[in-house]
Amino acid sequence: MRDARTTPLETAASGVAPRSVWWRTAGRALTPLAWVGPAVALILGVVLWPAVEMVRTSLTRVSSSGLSGGFTGFRNYAELFGENDLVPVLWRTALWVVGVVAVTLAVSLALAQVLNARFPGRRLVRWAVIVPWAASVLMTALLWKWMLDDFYGVVNKLLMDTGVIETPVNWLAHPEVAFACMMAVSVFVSLPFTSFVILAGLQTIPGEVYEAARVDGAGHLRTYFQITLPLLRPVLFVASVINVINVFNSFPIIWAMTQGGPGRATDTTTTLMYKLAFLNQDVGESAALAVVNFALILTLALLYSWGARRQGRAQA
């Protein structure tokens, strides 16, 4: 009969085993953190901390030299909403975002269909479409500004040579015309990315779906609106959200072409934010506008996401 007493060796072994199991379990649990940790740290350092600092700055008085004058509550927000130009700038920003994103999506849908078709030189055309995306946005805006110049711009020269106009036109001196030109440049810059996102979505649609539609006698328009567009909804949602955020925060195009002028006639919230901080030397009010900007973008994204989910459930 074996003695019931435990030897020192057995006692040590029984203590080591649970610890080794605990370390293995902890190691398996912490392994994902090793991969996700750098991304989380980057988000905390690049996104969360600046956002917190932005909110803090909007509640303080900051001098032109960067020194904090102490907590002021919502005084910066009161001054911001007391700006006479704020409401026109907000409406212009809404027009800027809706107009650019809508035109970009419409043109990109057509362009993606062309790029998805089979024709000689398709690869070359795809490379040509992606070239504007590879160029700097600031460089593209400056190039268009020079092309629209009333003295040496190529646009005036072409229109005068063809008899469309008789004298040079200073396109960027008229607020409505300048705003339309900037919207066109923004669409031009946004087209490559959006077109290739939609093209990727088109290439994921099975060919059997179109074959079945043709067998059922569906025409091209019916197939496009009842099959292609519904299947592209997730892709269009992603493209729309990214474009809304990019266009809303667009600064280089507006600043390079008009600097928000003449006066504040072509300002959006982004350029107005810059002017408040660096021209008016009011960092606190600029930070308050930045908080409003962030809230507007977040609201737009949430509303769009809610609408897309609701429409998807209704069609399911």
TrEMBL record:
Residues 90-304 form the ABC transmembrane type-1 domain. CDD domains: TM_PBP2. GO terms for biological process: transmembrane transport. Keywords: Cell membrane, Membrane, Transmembrane, Transmembrane helix, Transport. It comes from the Bacteria. The chain crosses the membrane at residues 29-52, 89-112, 124-144, 177-202, 235-257, 287-306. GO terms for cellular component: plasma membrane. Belongs to the binding-protein-dependent transport system permease family. This is Sugar ABC transporter permease. It comes from Nonomuraea montanisoli.
